[in-house]
Specification:
Radius of gyration: 30 Å
Number of domains: 2
Strand content: under 5%
Order of helices and strands: HHHHHHHHHHHHHHHHHHHHHHH
Number of strands: 0
Structural class: mainly alpha
Largest sheet: none
């Protein structure tokens, strides 16, 4: 018996290993396409459901999808209602795995398929191109998954070989509603331990196929697995902001609500399946298909019934999950979220780019506020300068957190394009922080001008205005292109802009020296030259960003 249990555990391990390799390889090879699909999340709840279905069907893991959704809510990229609808879709998308397991694992001689699939993927592993190697990982992972599935099926003996165990399990399954809840709880706990509903569903199908549990018990286990799979997102939400924690709790609430209503109609639902299936529903050989159909129809029905109540779900979790002192902390944090069974690094790159876009907007707004202070000095100067100083401190934190986040992404397996983009993204973050520093230095110079009542002559003011206008155009350009590929033609235009700023800097420097020789106020001219210097630095940083964007791989 102990050897049999170890064989089952080992088979589950091979199955999970194959699923991880397959999922990670597919995410890396198709990462860019998956990222473009995420744009649909922002439209409406129905598109959110379709997005959840599509992504989960591709990466074969509802846990990875929900962890990604929690990550996006944490970054402010998704609202709570958008996240809930996407999670609903993920529940439907994960049923694809059940169909693959049920049909290929129990209706087809799997040993005939597994090794040839590995053989097909092997040549890709020796390719010089990482994209092909990633695709090879996907193929080989698929084959290993089948090998694990075959081992699992063979490691569970027929129940007739253990009459005493058969009698005990029959007793457990003959207690009506109590048996139903017992199996729901068992499915929940076991899935929480394994952290993979796909693996537990595979075990459930295998046990039903070999006669260890009857079909209603297997269905109840399946329902419990729907609850247990929410543990991954729940764990991932630790340390995140209140919105992300609410998204994780909404996942649990949605799945629990489905099990509750199913408890009242379980017998009728099973009878409905008996009526619509074209095969012999009670033939044990067809139990895998029965469970796949039950799993699919349950999740589709649950989504149809509850999608109209997404706002209500959001209000419930808002009442259940209250903000903590961490949520009121104004310091900037970027939480790297992952799941132990699937690599979500390519998905997390999306969050990083969105944060860089946010940083670019903050920096441009900071520039506007600095120039506004220069143009409109008043008695509230101290408050305005303090606000600019606080923004500069925020950009320091953003640089540190985003760079650290990108370094964590680099430790994971990434698609070719995302891996090559990491260094350029880090460079962009560094340049944005330098722009923020120049803004703050300008604000200090402006504050000094106000305190010392230094007057800048009319020609110098005109020169400053021209430089500010050119710099503003440059900042607008990089902010609107963040984080997108910049063509060589656009880069050449940026170089021309920077040359114009440099030429203007040289001419105003010459004019300032001439004015000082003619007896102009030295303090005024030095202050003027400082402002010119900071504006030129911003122009240099903008050009550096454009050069980095030119290297970004689409």
């Amino acid at each position: 018996m102990i050897l049999m249990i170890l064989q089952i555990i080992g088979s589950i391990g091979v199955f999970l290993f194959g699923m991880k390799i397959m999922s990670d390889g597919l995410q890396r090879s198709a990462g860019q396409k998956l990222q473009s699909v995420l744009n649909f999340m922002t439209q409406n709840r129905f598109m959110g459901v379709l997005t959840g279905i599509f992504i989960t069907s591709i990466i074969q893991s509802s846990s990875a999808t929900t962890v990604m959704v929690v990550s996006f809510v944490n970054a402010g990229l998704l609202s709570l209602t958008q996240a809930i609808s996407t999670i609903m879709g993920a529940n439907i998308g994960t049923t694809v795995t059940t169909w693959i397991v049920s049909y290929f694992g129990f209706k087809v001689k799997i040993s005939v398929l597994a090794l040839p699939i590995v053989g097909i993927g092997l040549p890709f592993m020796f390719s010089k191109r990482k994209k092909y190697r990633d695709f090879g990982d996907f193929i080989i992972g698929f084959g290993i998954l089948f090998i694990g599935l075959g081992m699992l099926r063979d490691s569970i003996p027929d129940i007739t070989q253990y009459p005493q165990t058969q009698a005990f399990l029959a007793t457990l399954s003959s207690n009506g509603i109590w048996s139903y809840f017992l199996y729901v709880i068992a499915g929940t706990i076991l899935t929480m331990i394994i952290q993979s509903s796909s693996a537990m569903m595979t075990v459930t199908v295998a046990m039903a196929f070999k006669g260890w549990i009857d079909l209603p018990s297997a269905m109840a286990l399946c329902l419990g697995e729907n609850i247990g799979t929410t543990i991954t997102a729940y764990i991932a939400s630790f340390g995140t902001n209140v919105s992300a924690r609410r998204a994780a709790r909404a996942h649990t609430l949605f799945n629990v609500a489905g099990v509750i209503w199913m408890s009242f109609v379980f017998v009728y639902f099973k009878n409905l399946l008996t009526w619509i299936t074209p095969w012999d529903f009670y033939n044990r050989a067809n139990f895998p298909l029965d469970l796949a159909l039950f799993h699919t129809l349950f999740n589709i029905t649950n989504t149809i019934l509850l999608i109209g109540f997404v706002p209500q779900f959001a209000r419930i979790v808002e009442r259940l999950v209250k903000p903590t002192s961490r949520d009121t902390d104004t310091s900037y944090r970027l939480q790297y979220i992952s799941t132990p069974l699937q690599d979500t690094a390519d998905m997390n790159i999306i969050e990083a780019t969105k944060e860089i876009e946010k940083m670019a907007e903050i920096v441009e707004k900071m520039f506007d506020e600095t120039i506004h202070v220069f143009d409109h000095p008043d008695k509230k100067m101290e408050e305005k300068i303090q606000k600019i100083k606080d923004t500069e401190a925020l950009t320091d934190q953003m640089q540190e957190e985003i760079t650290h986040y990108l370094q964590q992404c680099a430790k994971e397996s990434l698609s070719d394009s995302n891996y090559s983009n990491l260094n350029f993204l880090m460079r962009i973050v560094h340049e944005l922080e330098n722009i923020a520093d120049s803004n703050y230095n300008m604000s200090k110079a402006i504050h000094h001008k106000f305190e010392k009542k230094i007057q800048i002559n009319a020609q110098a003011l005109e020169d400053i205005t021209r430089l500010v206008d050119l710099t503003k155009i440059f900042l607008d350009d990089i902010r609107s292109r963040m984080v997108k590929y910049v063509s060589s033609a656009e880069l050449n235009k940026a170089k021309e802009q920077e040359n114009v700023i440099n030429e203007l800097r040289r001419s105003v420097h010459k004019a300032a020296r001439s004015r000082m020789q003619q007896g102009s106020d030295v303090r005024s001219e030095l202050l003027f030259l400082d402002l010119v210097k900071y504006l030129e630095h911003i122009g240099d940083n903008c050009l550096n960003i454009m050069q980095a964007l030119n290297q970004i791989t689409e």
